[in-house]
Amino acid sequence: xxxxxxxxxxxxxxxxxxxxxxxxxxxxxxxxxxxxxxxxxxxxxxxxxxxxxxxxxxxxxxxxxxxxxxxxxxxxxxxxxxxxxxxxxxxxxxxxxxxxxxxxxxxxxxxxxxxxxxxxxxxxxxxxxxxxxxxxxxxxxxxxxxxxxxxxxxxxxxxxxxxxxxxxxxxxxxxxxxxxxxxxxxxxxxxxxxxxxxxxxxxxxxxxxxxxxxxxxxxxxxxxxxxxxxxxxxxxxxxxxxxxxxxxxxxxxxxxxxxxxxxxxxxxxxxxxxxxxxxxxxxxxxxxxxxxxxxxxxxxxxxxxxxxxxxxxxxxxxxxxxxxxxxxxxxxxxxxxxxxxxxxxxxxxxxxxxxxxxxxxxxxxxxxxxxxxxxxxxxxxxxxxxxxxxxxxxxxxxxxxxxxxxxxxxxxxxxxxxxxxxxxxxxxxxxxxxxxxxxxxxxxxxxxxxxxxxxxxxxxxxxxxxxxxxxxxxxxxxxxxxxxxxxxxxxxxxxxxxxxxxxxxxxxxxxxxxxxxxxxxxxxxxxxxxxxxxxxxxxxxxxxxxxxxxxxxxxxxxxxxxxxxxxxxxxxxxxxxxxxxxxxxxxxxxx
Length: 591
Description:
24 helices
């Protein structure tokens, strides 16, 4: 359902469809978000997708609760333009889509629920139960797991079941029970269901291995894309969605991945590369988005070596941890990875520790540098308002912008959101959190009985950490963006070096206000000869003091420290703890 991004088919539908067919069931999938976007207008649809939550859900809630429509429109007036008019248009679009489906041929209809899809799915479910009461309805996806599934079944009688956790085993078990006429509640793992004693949740069960999964089935999406009169001729760049793994081996304090998956499972490089080759041929697009929480680093070199052998001009996007090595990024670049998504979250090492990120700012800085040199797009969020964040953490981020200012500022500031089940949620006292509640803005929208029972995914809370001032942070961030964009127009790198074999020349065009200690408006040049040159090149990636001493055993340690301190002072090198990183990129690109 809307409001998923129309450039992407649903990986959930694609996987469940293929898996159920592999097990012998007749099932169909519908990517209704693409059809809705075509009728609504892609630009307007994008506007809703980009709006701050929960605009998308409220639009459909206004038709689920028509008695609250006035209040909802009043609330939406602060979030988007002409909400009332757009609501009317969208309602007719969705209702026509609903009427054009031959629902009577189906026994069961499932909805996959991710962000901003709850009330669109509930509205369809309500219509289905009204018009086809024998159809059974099941909800699955990350926003209906565990307690949220219980809340949905309490509040919305049109939903028969919810699935907690991974879908394949649960969905096929549900179909098995229905086909045999057995009691569904007794045999379906991960099922949230009503029983005589209330609502129960069966233990989860997920696939032991991902190796035997069939290719996701996106036929309906691409058929719609290539044949719909409102879509043909539009500049839409569809992506294929590919899985290398499920779950995550880390435990970041704010992240919901551990709530949905148990453990971390990967597929072999050969399996993934083969699937990519088949699906590119089948669907006619080389744009690929990997949906993993993070790249399986152990097999990454082999994976991207295999993909590079396809000799195809892929455009691929992947989520990567900031501690990725340069040679791994180079292998990705050769295979066609043009865009990477990092989880930087903040420019403060102290705050990264509180987030249990397992990364320091110096790793974030190194990742930016590598992408700048390799010509790879990168994106990341910066989380503002993390419960344990202090003004000192914000000030640390402000100071660290001095070192990031030579690299592309593709960072988006997003407010911290508290989700049920994440590590922060489990340790409220540690993070200074109290009074967890559903968002206050929604209390007057839902009926009172619903407000008491519904378990919304995102929570509001009170914090004892007080107010923070982000003024200087935003000013520095904006200055960084302007300076970098101007450098692009001027066709120059802000901080780069030329290696001339016996000496190395660093050119610095950063402004003084951004922290370059020796640069002028016209730029400045620093020449490093002999050992100083070798030292700077050696620290192209993060090197510890012990590694540096070992690399230069004949060089007096005091002299090494003197050179390092000078380079750090000039802000052409960064130091954190006892680790060092050279900041200038090779002007002619990596060799």
